[in-house]
Amino acid sequence: MAATAGRNSIVTYGTGTVSLMNDASFDVDVENAEITAFGDTAVTRVTGLRDASLSVSGSHDKSDTYQSSLIDNFLAGSDCAAMRLRTGAASGYYDCDMVPTKLSVKAKASADPIELSMDFAGDGTPTYSTGAPTVDA
């Protein structure tokens, strides 16, 4: 099946586009530690470690090479390295090695498409790069 990507977001895994992913969210949290000393007149904090997460959802299509590979890695408990969320055709992308945390498949009795959602936790430093990552179409 030819890869289908959203207009404003494209999820890539390895070197390919994961098709039929309609929604995606790349979050980066920063752990801040309070280091205020007794007698200080204001709270003081120091920036700590960064942590990323990625959530994607769309239609289930096991015939798509990259979606199938992600699902297989979830079921095997394997890491899912090199996950990217591209923001537009060539504007840039968020990147972080990821490990799988949740896979959800929802099928209805009607003829509606089977829904798929996947959540990932960061396993390294999240980055943002300009341009488009190299992917298979």
Radius of gyration: 18 Å
**Total helix count?**
1
Principal-axes shape call: elongated
Strand content: over 45%
Could you list the spans in which at least 5 consecutive residues all have pLDDT below 50?
1-6
The biggest sheet, with number of strands, parallel, antiparallel or mixed sense and barrel status, is: 8 strands, antiparallel
Describe the structure.
The protein has 137 residues and is mainly beta. It is built from one helix and eight strands. It has one helix spanning 65-76, and strands at 10-13, 16-17, 21-34, 45-59, 80-86, 92-106, 115-122, 127-130. Strands 1, 2, 3, 4, 5, 6, 7 and 8 form an eight-stranded antiparallel sheet that branches. The radius of gyration is 18 Å and the shape is elongated. The N and C termini lie close together (10 Å).
What are the defining features of this structure?
mainly beta, elongated, 1 helix, 8-stranded antiparallel sheet, 9% helix, 137 residues, disordered N terminus
Give the topology:
Layout: E1 10-13, E2 16-17, E3 21-34, E4 45-59, H1 65-76, E5 80-86, E6 92-106, E7 115-122, E8 127-130
Antiparallel strand pairs: 1-2, 1-5, 3-4, 4-7, 5-6, 6-7, 6-8
In short, what is this structure?
The chain is mainly β and 137 residues long.
